[in-house]
Amino acid sequence: ADGYTMLLHTLPMVMVPAMLTKPPYDPVTDLVPIAEIIYTPLWLVVSTARTKATTVKELVEQVRAEPRKHNFASIAPGSTGHLMGYEFNAQSKLDMEHVGYKGGAPATQALLTGEVTAAFLDFSTLKPHLAGGKIRLLAVSGSERSRNTPDVPTLKELGYVGFETTSWGGLFFASGTPAPIVQKMSDTVMRLLKDPEIVSKYQGLGYEIPSITREQFAQQIKADRDHWANVIRRADIKMN
Question: Which of 45, 91, 174, 230 would you call most buried, defined as having the most Cβ atoms within 10 angstroms of its Cβ?
Fold first, then answer.
């Protein structure tokens, strides 16, 4: 069964198909979820070289007062950070321009040097740079505050809608895999995710360990697909 196991995350599972005119697969019907492995919210982070804002309200006020002077980075066009930036722009009525980089390292470097004003990035990417004073965390996605940054409010707390989603990684089988094999693998993975050593390792990297069933993961995939497809349609993001 291991030869047919796939490790996938949010972007290829629920975002990429929505960006294609004729997607080659349907994440709900062509793949069978085994288990969610990890998840992480994304933090709204700003460059202190570009803004003195210490709150989301202050950032919004500054960007509105300085039209066409601010931008936001993401790890790639069409990524979760790109879509969250688009939504933040839309709900805040801002005009920050998106700048897509090739990965988290160059996007973070753009923040550190003041090349961009803001970004939505994960904690493992940002953690090494937090003590340097060149970046500042203003808010976080997800339905509740992160244990990594308990003083940082969620965007939901601040009145933003649709930022409860997180980036996740999960294991999948191809559709048609016998149910007993799927269940056996799911039970094994769920047991491993309760191992204190594994939990500690992932949390040390800035990730969270989920506590949802395979069935709940399947429902989450459907909800994320519908949510991001709506954002992608409004943002008019397409892949060739």
Answer: 45
